[in-house]
Amino acid sequence: MTRAAGFWGLLAGTLSSVGMFSLMKLDHRWVSVFALSPRAQGLAQDMYQALWSCVTCVVVTVLVTLVTKPKPDHELKGLVYALTEVAHEEHTSWFHRPAVWGAVALLVLVVLQIIFW
Question: Any transmembrane segments, and where (predicted)?
Fold first, then answer.
């Protein structure tokens, strides 16, 4: 995804959501268009509004990505996991290893579960 695709996709999704909201509030006949039922209540309207906004965002993002040029790989080093060298933990003390703190957190979770069961 390119920077322009992210911007235009989010903008299109937001504007489509605001537009649908405004149309449904101004004229209730638009509810049957967006929510696929003229008797849709508030939560159903909100869910369909979110669905159509998400679809709009994704479609615009993909289309803009297809027509814009991506950044070269050398500019993405340090930002993208696949292009960044992974540090090894060979020479770190046990105190600084994530596995140790993960085990401690899991142990605390189990103890608290037993106490507050």
Answer: 6-26, 47-67, 99-116
Q: Where are the domains of the chain?
A: 1-72
CA 23-26-28 angle, 5° bins = 80
Cβ contacts of 62 within 8 Å, gap of 6 or more: 5
Determine how many CB atoms are found less than 10 A away from the CB of residue 30. 17
Cα-Cα-Cα-Cα dihedral sign, residues 20, 26, 32, 35: positive
What one-character DSSP code corresponds to residue 84? Answer: S
- The residue type at 56: T
pLDDT digits over 77-110, tens only?
A: 888 888 888 777 677 787 888 889 999 999 999 9
The whole-angstrom separation of Cα 23 and Cα 56 is 16
